[in-house]
Structure formats: C-alpha cells, structure tokens
Specification:
- The complex is a heterodimer of chains A (293) and B (260).
- By secondary structure, chain A is mainly alpha-helical.
- Chain A has helices at 12-23, 31-63, 73-85, 87-120, 122-137, 144-151, 155-179, 183-192, 196-233, 242-251, 255-287.
- Chain A starts with 11 loop residues before the first helix and ends in a 6-residue tail after the last helix.
- In chain B, helix 5 links the parallel strand 7 (161-165) and strand 8 (193-198).
- Chain B has 260 residues and is of the alpha/beta class.
- Chain B is globular, with a radius of gyration of 18 Å.
- Chain B folds into 2 domains: 4-83 and 160-259, 3-Layer(aba) Sandwich (Rossmann fold); 96-158, no CATH class.
- Classes of the chains: A mainly alpha (293), B alpha/beta (260).
- Chain A binds chain B through residues 2, 12, 15-16, 19-20, 23-25, 27, 184-185, 187-194, 198, 202-203, 206-207, 209, 286-289, 293, and chain B through 68, 70, 84-86, 88, 90, 92, 94-97, 105-106, 108-110, 129, 137-145, 153, 157, 174-175, 177-178, 181, 185, 236.
C-alpha cells in the first residue's frame, strides 16, 4: 500500500471494490429458512400459553367450583363450535367488525388531522394539547349517556364514542412523532430547501410514522373497548352484534355461550393488535432499527 | 439588509463566494453567555477549497451554520453567493428512503420534474460510484457508502458552495482516503467552492487550497497556510506530511498559549 512507486498503487476502482467487499454486511441468503425458524419461535410459546390456560380452566372446573354455572373448556369450546356453524354468530361478527372498521377509520382520519394541526400550530397546541391528553384518560363508557341523548339508540352513537375513545391516542402519537423528528434530519431537510408544506410532507410525516403507528395501536385498544361497551349499552333491534349476543346470553344466563363470545372478542382484538405489530416490525426493518436487518 | 445575502444563481456560474466580516456569535445571555466566535473575518473566493482546522470548541460548526444561514450572527455580516449545501459528520439520510430516493428528494425540493429527476438521480449515484446500490436503504450500506450518498445528495442541491462539517470524521482511514479521491474527482467536473471543517491536519493539507487555523473559546482566526502542493495529492506523501507537521506545531503553540 505504501509503495513509493505510484504505478504499483491499486487503482481507485480496485480499492473501491475491496472496501465494498469488506464493508457491506453479508445479506440474508437464507431468508426463507430464517422466517420459518422465526415463526416457529414465535408460535410455540403462544401455543403453550393457550394449553396452560385451558389446563388451569379445566382444573378449576374439575375442582367443582360453582359447578352448576361455570362450564369447563370442553362444553364452552363445543358451544363455540356449534355457534360457528350458525349464521347468527357470523352475522354478529360482521356487524361488529364493520363498526370497528368504520369507527376506527374515522378515528384515524380525525386523529391524524387534529394531530397534524396541533403539532404545527403553537397556539393551538397550548389551547388543546392538554385537552387531548385529558380525553385520552377519560373512560369512554362515560360518554354513552351523552351520545345516546344526542344521537339516539343507533350506530352513530356507538361510532361517536369510538372516535372519542381512539382519536386522542392517534393524535398524540402523531404529535409525539413530529416532536421527536431528529433535529439533524430537519437541518438536512432545510438545507435542501424543503419548507413548510414540503418539509412536512417529505420529512416530518414520514419521520413520524413509527410513533403514529404506535398511537394507532393504542387507539385500536381504546376503539375496541369503546365498541364493546357501546354494543352492550346501545342495543339496536334486529341488528345482531357481538354485544347483542352477549347481552342475550346474560338475560338467559347462558354461561357457555357467554364465554364462547368472550373468546371470539378476545381473538378478534388480538388479531388486529397483531396486524399493528406486524406493521411496526415492517417499518423497523425497513428503517434498519432492528438488529436483524 | 438581511445578514445573509443570496444572489441569483445565474450570476455565479464560477462557484459561490463566501464572505464573513467581523462575525461574532454569542450563545445565551448574561453570565452564562458563551462567545463561540469572536470577530472572525474570512473570505473564500469562488472555486476555492478552504479547510478550517482547530481544536474542539473553536466554533467550527457554528461558523458553518452561520454560512448556511441556519443561524444568524450576533454581530458582523455573513454573505454567501449562490446556493449553499451542508454535509455533516453523520450522513443524515432519511431512513425511509432508498439511497436513490435520498438523492431524488433534494432534486424534488428544487422543483425538478419527474423525468429529469430520475435521470439526474441516476447520474449522481453513478458519480459517487454507487451504481447498483441506488435501491438499497441507508442501513444496508456501509458508513463510507452512506457518506457518498450524502455527497450525492449535496451535489443534487446544485450547490455553488459546499460546506462540510467533519464529513469523514467517523470513517476508517481506508474509506476516508477513498472519499478524499472521490471529492477531488467530483470537484474536478464542477465549479464548486468548498469550506471543509476538520480536526485532522493531514486531511486538511491533503484536500485544501488553503488551511485556516482557528483558536478555541472564543474562535478566532489565528493563522493561515496556503497549500502549494500539486494535485493529485496523497495523504501519506512527504510534502503533505511536512506541511501538516508545521501546521500541527502552530496548533500546539496556540493551545499552550491558550492554557497560560
């Protein structure tokens, strides 16, 4: 390398090739296999947890505690299986799911607009910033009397409460993302000539994406809770929903069916939460924020 | 008049010039105020490669921020003609965009249309020898490659004045050596004025037409060295080492004087 004769020095291209060969990390050649290993690694603890829960449940059942009214897993799962063969449960799931999609969608749209405005306009933030956090801590079930009086016993009342429950988390997620945009990137963006709207669109919004997704995940938990509370309180005739089924089961003291519906609600909630986790991981991988890029 | 004057791009076809006149920058107020720069005057002529060197705390980065217009001087005037781009020690790439996307966003910020953007991006990626890596995300690239993307992005800003704040400070010696050549090459085809901040004396001599030595706390210009060494230069060549040794001696003198 330190040869005195310049002719014997490696050329620029040679040095570049050498550095690139040593510099770049070996790319995953076994991605497919790694994915399989990873899925299995994520799957077995969950499966084991379910088995343990079922075992404890069965033990309680066998111990004879409240034997007349507390069903064991066998009866409950059989009940769930039977209900899955009927149109009623699927109809109810469809109704509840469509409310969840519409309500959460509205909450994301409204939360994003509010978050975007509040994060960029200082007086607005001073005015409503703490109000948003306050709304976030408000138990959404407390809004139902208000919503029912305002809108009546209908879907609008339920959607109203979902939005009130979820939008503050989503707005706060975006605000946090904007606040934590790395100052160095802001400097770089300003030097490039990004200003106001273009700075927001090309830099601040994308930089806020991880925090926004975290806000959506939290917002989803609030939306799902508000929706369940709403379906128990706002019973609309001839519109079967998971809440209506639960409410009917309660009236008929049908414990196996009640438990079966609870399992359905739990699974749906977990499924959507998993979607957000997948989105979160995808972003992290894309940005190189994980160790396993 | 605004302290930062940006003249029309058409009038500066030979690279931009930079002029600082009696610039003082004080951070904070009252008892806790820190005088980062004290009465600095500096003129960089179009096409010149000026290296600023000094110990940490000499306000080198502040000086670049002032020229870039990111901060305003407490007193004195700063003017830079033409478009100014700034490169940092970290590449500061957008992690959600590919290497090419990072270059393209700078073109987009200048309002260049899609077709031309595509073509210019490809040219710039090629210019920094990253052909084939345009589709990679920053985290998939090595430190040197990322800094080359940052260089391409700075070039995409069509700057007349390129400010570089220890851009190769975080790289290993081999990669840094390569990027020095890269910078020479990129500069050869353009009318580019460069102000380069470093604390590596040899790097300054390897690259600059002129090395300006700054003192610390407050930052002042204490000396200036012309670099009459013919290009292409090598960082380990005798003339570079010899001049670097002289400048290092001057820096030591300044530091011991400061300690008294």
């Amino acid at each position: 390398m330190a040869a005195s004769n310049p002719g014997s020095l490696p050329t620029y291209a040679e040095r570049l090739a050498w550095l690139e060969a040593t510099d770049t990390e070996p790319q995953a050649g076994q991605r497919g296999r790694r994915l399989a290993v990873r899925s299995w690694g994520a799957f077995w603890p969950k499966a084991l947890a379910i088995v343990i829960v079922l075992a404890i449940w069965q033990l309680i059942h066998v111990s004879g505690w409240k034997k007349e009214i507390f069903p064991g897993p066998g009866v409950t799962l059989a009940n769930l299986w039977d209900q899955l063969q009927t149109g009623l449960l699927w109809h109810a799931i469809a109704t509840t799911a469509s409310r969840a999609v519409v309500g959460f969608g509205l909450a994301v749209a409204i939360g994003a607009v509010i978050g975007a405005l509040v994060s960029r306009i200082a007086p607005l933030r001073a005015a409503v910033g703490s109000l948003i956090t306050g709304l976030q801590t408000m138990p959404s079930i407390a809004w139902f009397p208000f919503a029912i009086i305002l809108f009546g016993i209908n879907t609008t009342a339920i959607l109203f409460v979902i939005v009130l429950g979820a939008a503050p988390s989503i707005a706060n997620g975006l605000i946090a993302g904007v606040d934590y945009t790395p100052p160095l990137l802001l400097k770089a963006g300003k030097m490039m000539g990004l200003r106001r709207f273009s700075l927001y669109w090309h830099l601040i919004l994308p930089a806020s994406l991880p925090a926004f997704v975290a806000g959506m995940r939290q917002g989803w938990a609030f939306a799902w809770r508000s929706l369940m509370a709403g379906e128990l309180l706002v019973i609309i005739a001839n519109q079967p929903s998971l809440g209506v089924l639960l409410s009917t089961d309660q009236d008929q003291a049908d414990m196996p069916s009640t438990t079966a519906i609870i399992i359905v609600i739990l699974i749906l909630g977990i499924l959507v939460h998993t979607l957000f986790s997948v989105a979160d991981r995808a972003i992290r991988r894309r940005w190189g924020l994980t160790g396993t890029a | 008049m605004s302290p930062v004057t940006v003249t029309d791009r058409l009038t500066s076809a030979v690279g931009g010039s930079v002029q600082l006149t009696a610039v003082t920058k004080v951070f904070g107020r009252g008892g806790t105020a820190v005088r980062a720069l004290d009465q600095i005057s500096l003129e960089v002529t179009p096409g010149e490669f000026t290296c600023l060197i000094g110990a940490s705390g000499c306000g080198k980065s502040t000086l670049l921020s002032l020229i870039a217009g990111l901060e305003l001087p407490t007193s004195g005037t700063v003017s830079a003609s033409g478009r100014v781009a700034l490169m940092f020690q970290e590449p500061a790439l957008f992690p959600w965009l590919t290497a090419a996307g990072n270059v393209e966003v700078a073109l987009r910020a200048r309002g260049i249309g899609r077709a031309e953007r595509r073509q210019r991006t490809a040219e710039l990626i090629e210019a920094v020898h990253l052909g084939g890596f345009g589709g990679k995300r920053p985290h998939e690239l090595s430190g040197g490659m990322r800094q080359r993307v940052a260089l391409a992005r700075a070039l995409a800003q069509d700057a007349d004045v390129l400010l570089m704040d220890e851009p190769f400070g975080a790289l290993d010696a081999m990669t840094r050596d390569l990027l020095h050549d890269e910078l020479d090459r990129v500069r050869a085809g353009r009318e580019l004025t460069i102000v380069f901040v470093t604390h590596n004396v040899r790097e300054a001599v390897r690259l600059g037409d002129r090395v300006v030595v700054l003192s610390s706390r407050p930052g002042r210009v204490v000396d200036e060295f012309a670099v009459p060494i013919e290009r292409p230069r090598r960082i380990d060549s005798a003339p570079v080492a010899e001049l670097a040794a002289r400048i290092t001696d001057r820096l030591r003198e300044e530091m011991s004087g400061h300690g008294r």
